[in-house]
Design goal:
mainly alpha, Growth Hormone, Chain: A, 2 domains
Length: 415
């Protein structure tokens, strides 16, 4: 199916869901672009920023549960309104914060609502009455939408701060986008689409009886999956460590201006967008192992170069290394997930949840470890741990594929 025919078959609800994910990509990536202004205004230390990252990751873990199974028990439209209302309340709490405690509570609430809405978007697409091929492309497009939103975040911050130099303004203006989403979901066409979801969900449940699957504990402790969880934790450390700390590192550690540092972060997310678009739309003769290992090696080189920026650092160097670093890690999640699904298709939902949990654990570790090292040594040493984690991730993927080559059949999770 060509792109034009694919677009014509996208239902109205799916367009609103894609807009939701794009907005979530913007809102979910504001903190990394505003750490300097936030720290100056509220007199926060590197430890405080590290705790904010940890708290945000914890909120994301909670939100993942609120956007998954609960969507099968409560009407999706009710959940959408509830999560958007919760997001509005969290934004108000954030922008009115004058101390770390209220800021942390607001940040926790908005991460819960944001991730719940993101997971609900995936669940709703999965429940819609679409062919398998269209649904697969829609889910891939949601990933691209998140990345596009993440790419917009630095631009959003740079231009808004020029007109009103306060970290609160980019967050406060986001209220308009949330209101726009509420209006869009309230449209009568969307209501009819929501009802169609329930019909499709019931018919699908009748047509596909539950298959026997492994327990979470079996999947976590199995010899053929454990390296996947290690890789997920390390790539979470790399991606979110870079997202949250690069602007601080570039500005304080390498004397790069804040705007230039944000453009570097934009180049990083642009690289991720390109990698995900390539994965979605362009056929490749490379195997899963070849793609993951080769891109992992690119990421290793780029993060090492970023960790040892020369002083002074030329802007093309900042943009080029960040862009290729984004390419290097942009498609890790879908490739790892697809590789695991090949071995146990009936455990798809559990694999997805466990990989996301691993990434969130990595993000939490990045917040705490980099914050601690920055506080007691300096930001340069803190950021260097990201490069080490990238090398560790590549080693973990090599071990994962080596185990699977030695044991090509894994019908028993205890193998």
């Amino acid at each position: 199916m060509n792109t034009r025919a694919f677009i014509k078959q996208i239902p109205p609800l799916a367009w609103v869901i894609m807009l939701t994910v794009l907005c979530a990509g913007v809102f979910g990536n504001l903190l990394g672009n505003l750490t300097t202004e936030l720290s100056d205004d509220l007199h926060l230390s590197a430890k405080h920023i590290g705790w904010l990252v940890f708290i945000g990751s914890s909120g994301s873990a909670i939100g993942a549960f609120l956007g998954g199974d609960i969507a099968y028990r409560v009407r999706p439209l009710i959940l959408v309104y509830a999560y958007l209302a919760g997001m509005l309340a969290s934004i108000v709490l954030l922008v009115s914060s004058t101390q770390f405690t209220t800021l942390a509570i607001g940040f926790l609430c908005y991460e819960i609502m944001l991730t719940a809405l993101l997971m609900l978007s995936h669940t709703m697409i999965g429940q819609m009455d679409l062919t398998s091929a269209i649904r697969a492309r829609m889910l891939a497009l949601l990933d691209v939408g998140w990345s596009v939103g993440a790419s917009i975040a630095p631009i959003w911050v740079v231009f808004l701060l020029r007109g009103y130099p306060s970290w609160r303004f980019p967050y406060a203006l986001f209220i308009l986008l949330v209101v726009a989403l509420i209006v869009a979901y309230s449209h009568t066409i969307i209501r009819s689409s929501i009802n169609a979801i329930h019909l499709h969900r019931q018919s699908s449940a009748d047509a596909h009886p539950t298959q026997a699957s492994h327990t979470y504990w079996q999947l976590i402790t199995s010899r053929w999956t454990i390296w996947a969880w290690v890789a997920a934790i390390l790539i979470g450390y790399v991606e979110w460590g870079h997202t949250y700390w690069f602007v601080n590192y570039a500005h304080q550690g390498r004397a790069i201006s804040l705007d230039n540092a944000r453009w570097g972060l934009l180049a990083f997310t642009a690289g991720m967008v390109l990698a995900r678009a390539w994965q979605t739309f362009i056929h490749s003769n490379l195997s899963t192992e070849q793609r993951l290992i080769r891109l992992g090696l690119v990421g290793c080189v780029m993060f090492a170069l970023i960790a040892w920026f020369p002083n002074p650092t030329l802007m093309p160097y900042v943009l080029g290394t960040n862009f290729l670093a984004g390419v290097g890690i942009g498609i890790v999640f879908p490739i790892l997930l697809n590789h695991l699904i090949d071995f146990a298709p009936h455990d798809t939902a559990k694999f997805s949840a466990l990989l996301m949990l691993g990434i969130l654990i990595g993000a939490q570790l990045a917040g705490l470890i980099i914050g601690y090292i920055t506080e007691h040594l300096n930001i340069n040493w803190g950021y260097a741990t990201i490069a080490l984690a990238m090398f560790g991730f590549t080693f973990a993927t090599l071990k994962l594929f080596a185990v699977h080559k030695r044991h090509p059949s894994h019908s028993n999770p205890s193998d």
